[in-house]
Specification:
Elements: H1 3-11, H2 25-41, E1 43-46, H3 52-65, E2 70-76, E3 98-105, H4 115-121, H5 123-133, E4 139-140, E5 148-153, E6 158-162, E7 170-176, E8 180-181, E9 184-187, H6 198-205, E10 214-215, E11 223-226, E12 232-235, E13 238-239, E14 244-249, E15 251-252, H7 261-268
Antiparallel strand pairs: 1-11, 2-3, 3-5, 3-6, 4-15, 5-14, 6-12, 7-11, 7-14, 8-13, 9-10, 9-12
The structure holds 2-oxoglutaric acid and fe (ii) ion.
C-alpha cells in the first residue's frame, strides 16, 4: 500500500465508501451508480465523501493560502475566450462576454503534507474515478500548478457560463459552500463534438432556456464528476462573507502530461515556460 493510500484512509469516509477494497460490493455498487448517473445526466455526486476532520484541515489550509492566491478576473465568452469576433452577429454565442472572478490556489503552494494532495495522489481515489469515467487507467497530471487546486470565491465572485476546455471530465470537491449564491448550475448536454448548437447555447446565455438548467446541490465533502466540455455550466455569484472553497483536480489518460504555459499564465499569473 502506498503512503498516499494510508493517508487517504484518514481523508475519505471509508466507512461509507470502502474504495480501497476492490472486492467490496459497496464499492462496486457506488461505481455502478455513479457511472449510470454520469451517463444519463452528465454529472454525478458522491455525498459525504470526506471525513469531517479532514475537511476541516482542507478548509484551514485553503484559508491559510488564500492570501497567496492569484486573482483570476476576466470578461470571457463561454468558450473561455477574451476577445469578440466582429465577423459574427453581436448576439452570437461567441460574442456574449461575461464576468468571471475566482481566486486560484495552485498546486505548487500546497505544503508537502497537504490533505488535498494526499487525496489527489491516492491510488484508491484515482482508480475509483477511472472506473466511473471510463475503462482506461488515469494518471496524475505532472504540471507544477494544475494537478490539485483550491478555487476560492469571495463575496461577489462567480464563474459565468462556460464549457471546460478539452477534457473528458472535471472533478471537484466541495470544501466549503457559500452561505448564499455560489450555486453550481448545469444545462446538461448543450453541445456535442459534432454539433456546437450555437442557437441553443445563445438561448441559455440569454436566460431563455432556464427550463434546461439543473442546480446541483453539494454539501461540504461532496465529490462531483461532470462532463464540463459538453455541458454549459456556471457558478452563480457568491453572496456574503463565507468564502466558497472548492477543490479542483486534473487527471490524465496518459502519463507525464503538463499544462499549457499560456493557460497557466492566464489562470495562475505565472510564467511557467520560464521556470522549466
Ligand atoms: O466550482 C464549481 O462548482 C465548478 C467550477 C467549474 O466550472 C470547473 O471546475 O470547471
Ligand atoms: Fe468549468
Amino acid at each position: 500500500m502506498s503512503n498516499h493510500d494510508k493517508d487517504a484512509r484518514h481523508i475519505v469516509n471509508i466507512e461509507l465508501y470502502p474504495i480501497h477494497d476492490k472486492e467490496d460490493p459497496v464499492r462496486q455498487a457506488l461505481i455502478a451508480k455513479c457511472k449510470a448517473d454520469l451517463q444519463e445526466n452528465l454529472f454525478c455526486v458522491i455525498p459525504d465523501f470526506i471525513q469531517p476532520e479532514a475537511l476541516q484541515l482542507m478548509k484551514s489550509e485553503a484559508l491559510m493560502l488564500r492570501s497567496q492566491a492569484h486573482d483570476n478576473i476576466s470578461k470571457r465568452n463561454c468558450y473561455l475566450q477574451r476577445s469578440i469576433d466582429p465577423s459574427l452577429p453581436t448576439d452570437h454565442a461567441r460574442n456574449h462576454q461575461n464576468e468571471a472572478s475566482t481566486r486560484m490556489v495552485s498546486y505548487n503552494l500546497l505544503p508537502k503534507n497537504s490533505p488535498l494532495k494526499s487525496f489527489y495522489h491516492s491510488p484508491a481515489v484515482r482508480e475509483m474515478v477511472a472506473e466511473i469515467v471510463g475503462d482506461s487507467p488515469l494518471f496524475d497530471n505532472e504540471d507544477l500548478y494544475q494537478p490539485a487546486n483550491y478555487v476560492c470565491y469571495d463575496n461577489g465572485d462567480q464563474s459565468s457560463w462556460h464549457f471546460d476546455s478539452v477534457n473528458a471530465f472535471t472533478m471537484t470537491l466541495m470544501v466549503q459552500p457559500a452561505d448564499n449564491g455560489g450555486e453550481f448550475e448545469i444545462s446538461p448536454n448543450t453541445r456535442t463534438d459534432a454539433n456546437q448548437n450555437y442557437d441553443h447555447v445563445a438561448d441559455v446565455l440569454k436566460g431563455n432556456r432556464d427550463d434546461t438548467i439543473v442546480s446541483v446541490g453539494r454539501e461540504p465533502g461532496a465529490l462531483c464528476l461532470f462532463r464540463g466540455c459538453n455541458s454549459l455550466h456556471r457558478v452563480s455569484p457568491v453572496v456574503g462573507d463565507t468564502m466558497r472553497i472548492m477543490g479542483v483536480f486534473v487527471y490524465e489518460t496518459e502519463k507525464g502530461v503538463i499544462g499549457d504555459p499560456e493557460v497557466n499564465e492566464t489562470i495562475y499569473g505565472v510564467n511557467s515556460a520560464a521556470s522549466i
